[in-house]
Structure formats: structure tokens, C-alpha cells
Specification:
35% of the residues lie in helices and 25% in strands. It has 399 residues and is of the alpha+beta class. Strands 1, 2, 3, 4, 5, 6, 7, 8 and 16 form a 9-stranded mixed sheet that branches. It is globular.
């Protein structure tokens, strides 16, 4: 049973915490959510402490007996409309113009978005609900708790609310958010590779390819043969971070838009807190760092996180393609079931066997009139089209 004194603010069966360290140990025991590393206190603490530029919060729901039944992770971020750099730019300019004329967009400060989910990772990592709960009802209560958080804790400084990255199988639950005033939209899908049970080695994986894709893979592996790949440990992260940050910025600056910049200092905390379940690999060309990858192993899945690439060498040495194959090789070695490659570079990811997995985002402005305008804007958002490759001899599994 949680002590009420530890709640930042309380409302009936809801408690708010401003730090993961304030959540009592018995709550984690009641929730039994730590098998999923995205809801493990060690992971959440690393993310929180490594990114002080973001306001983190945690919403806990309790039943009538005051036992914890659900956890929602929240980040309040500053979103700059100017950061949108894709075909939505013209629409964004219209939204900015209309929004400021009607005084529904702040002119002197950034647009503040409360995100329920993981700002830095694609997927359902924002809401954990215990088994044997009415998930629709719990999600409705979380949606209300988010609104109350804005009033009670943030003191009316938040402009919009986002619940992000729900897979299609969850929509029969999450579509209850429409009744709470949310609008839904889809951005680029997560690219997912399902590993076959008979892939015991990387060669088994290549053997499943059609000839032309296998030839392409072997060519990329030959091109990248001069790269030296090193597992990065906590003790040598410090000296690599400045170069890694430059490589990360090179990649992130190419993105259509980012919800927020990731502080790579967080890698030290993630390695310390999660050990071998958090992976960082460095790619060297002689004595020059030309790339890195990162990822997390959780619940029989490897999730690709941030990468950094020196694009001056990428084409010649097939750096990024080698990274994709290394993610796959690592997953086969650990006998994992799936790889979540994330949202970017969909076509090249499809060439290694990944298929798109739609993720739905729900968004609402806190005021009704701008929320209607927002709904018009969101209807124009469409995932980026790409040429889906089909490298395997058999028919790919539909996600």
C-alpha cells in the first residue's frame, strides 16, 4: 500500500510522482512490470537523470484496496514547429499563422506537449496495465489523470497532450480516447523483423534470402570488412561521447522532425543500470570513429535505438547496412524473437527483411477550438511512402 505522503498530488485513486526514485518499492512489486525493461525503475531512472532538459513524471492508478494497477510514464517537452522539415512544412506554416492570429499558439515560448509514452523510442512504452484489469476503463482514467496533471501539477502551462505508438491490436482499447477529445494519426511505421525459429546462425538468415538480396548482403559485408566493431563498455564511454554526439547529430538532423534531442550521456547510466541488456557498439575505420549503434534487449526482442554515422564513409564502407546486419546477428545469437528497427530509413530496413508495423498516435489540444483546428492538420499527415522490398524466398508474415 502506497504512502499518500509520497504523492506529488493525489486525486482519489491517482498519484503523481515527479521522480521515479520517489515511487515506493512495494508499488513495483504490486505492478510486476519490471520484466518489460521500459517499465523497469532502473531504465526509467537512467532516462530521467540523463535528460534533465525534460520534465519527467509518473502517474499511478490504484484500486479500491489501494493496490497499484497501472503506471503511465509522462514527459513534458518543448516542441518547436520550426523543427518540421518535411512535406508538412507548408501546412505547419498555415497552422502557425492561424494559431497565432487566433491566440491559440504561444508566440513567446515553445509549444509544450505532454507525452505519455517514450519520447525517444517507438512503441507502446507509455502505459502499463496489470493483468485482469478493464483496460478501456483504466485508459480512460489515465486520460483524465493526464488532464488533471496539467491543472494540478503543471499549473496550466501545457498546450497539448499526446499518447503515442499503439499497435493495431490495441486500437479496440485506445479508440476510447476519441471520447476524451483526442484525434488520431499515423506517422512512419515501425519496421519489424520476425526471426524464424530455424535461424541458428547468420548464415541461416542469409540462406532464407532470394539470390539477388543475398548477393547484395554479401557485397555489403565485404565493403564493411575493414571496419573494426567494438563493444562499448561503461569505462570507455566517457572519452567517446563527444565524437558519438557529433555522429548522432549528423543522423538526427536528417529526420523529418524530432520530439526531443537525446542526451548521449544517458548511455553511461543505461549501461550501469541495465548491463548487457543495453548494447552500444562503436565502428572504427583504422583510428577514426565512423559510427555507433545502440539498442536494448527486452522481452525476447531487440529494439534498435539511436545510431550515429559519418556519412562521408557510409557509402564506401556500407556502415549503416552493416549495422542492420549486426543487429540481426546479435538477435540470432541471443535467440530473440523480433527486432524493432524503428521508424526511419524504411526502405533499406525492408531490404533486410523488416515489414511495416503501423503505430497510432493520439493528440489533443487542451482547448476545444484549437483542438478542432488541430484535427484538420492531423488529417493531412500521412506516412512517408517507400518501396517495400521482399528479400525472403517465402511469403513474409503480415504484421
Amino acid at each position: 500500500m502506497v504512502s499518500k505522503l509520497l504523492c506529488k498530488k493525489k486525486s482519489s485513486n491517482v498519484c503523481y510522482f515527479s521522480s521515479v526514485d520517489d515511487i515506493p518499492e512495494e508499488v513495483w512489486q504490486e505492478l510486476q512490470c519490471s520484466d518489460n525493461l521500459y517499465f523497469h525503475p532502473n531504465y526509467l531512472a537512467a532516462l530521467e537523470k540523463g535528460n534533465p532538459q525534460i520534465q519527467f513524471a509518473y502517474i499511478l492508478l490504484f484500486d479500491e484496496a489501494k493496490n497499484a494497477i497501472a503506471l503511465a510514464t509522462v514527459q513534458v517537452i518543448d516542441f518547436y514547429l520550426e523543427s518540421v522539415q518535411n512535406n508538412l512544412q507548408s501546412i505547419v506554416e498555415w497552422v502557425k499563422c492561424m494559431g497565432r492570429k487566433l491566440h491559440i499558439l504561444p508566440s513567446e515560448r515553445p509549444f509544450k506537449v505532454l507525452t505519455c509514452g517514450n519520447t525517444f523510442v517507438s512503441g507502446e512504452h507509455g502505459v502499463f496495465i496489470k493483468h485482469n484489469q478493464d483496460k478501456k476503463q483504466v485508459l480512460k482514467e489515465i486520460a483524465q489523470a493526464i488532464i488533471d496533471f496539467e491543472k494540478e501539477v503543471s499549473k496550466n502551462t501545457i498546450d497539448a497532450f499526446m499518447l503515442k505508438d499503439f499497435v493495431n491490436e490495441s486500437l479496440f482499447i485506445t479508440d476510447t480516447l476519441y471520447k476524451e477529445g483526442y484525434n488520431s494519426f499515423n506517422v512512419d511505421p515501425n519496421m519489424l523483423l520476425v526471426l524464424e525459429d530455424n535461424w541458428h546462425t547468420f548464415d541461416d538468415y542469409l540462406a532464407a534470402f532470394k539470390t539477388k538480396f543475398r548477393v547484395k548482403a554479401r557485397r555489403a559485408l565485404k565493403q564493411s570488412a575493414d571496419l573494426r566493431v567494438v563493444d562499448v563498455q561503461t569505462e570507455n564511454l566517457e572519452q567517446l561521447l563527444p565524437e558519438m554526439t557529433l555522429l548522432y547529430k549528423t543522423v538526427s538532423n536528417k529526420a523529418s522532425f524530432n520530439l526531443g534531442d537525446f542526451n548521449l550521456e544517458t548511455y553511461k547510466l543505461l549501461k550501469e543500470n541495465l548491463g548487457d541488456n543495453y548494447i552500444v557498439k562503436a565502428y572504427w575505420l583504422e583510428d577514426k570513429l565512423v559510427g555507433f549503434l545502440s539498442g536494448i534487449i527486452s522481452q525476447n526482442s531487440l529494439d534498435a535505438h539511436f545510431v550515429g554515422i559519418d556519412y562521408q564513409y557510409n557509402k564506401t564502407y556500407a556502415i549503416y547496412q552493416r549495422m542492420l546486419y549486426d543487429y540481426i546477428s546479435l538477435s540470432i545469437k541471443h535467440q530473440l524473437k523480433t527486432i524493432n528497427f524503428g521508424r526511419t530509413a524504411s526502405e533499406i530496413k525492408s531490404s533486410v527483411g523488416a515489414v511495416p508495423q503501423d503505430l497510432t498516435i493520439y493528440l489533443r489540444h487542451k482547448n476545444s477550438i484549437p483542438n478542432r483546428i488541430l484535427s484538420l492538420f492531423l488529417k493531412k499527415i500521412q506516412p512517408t511512402e517507400f518501396n517495400q522490398k521482399k528479400p525472403f524466398k517465402h511469403i513474409e508474415k503480415v504484421v
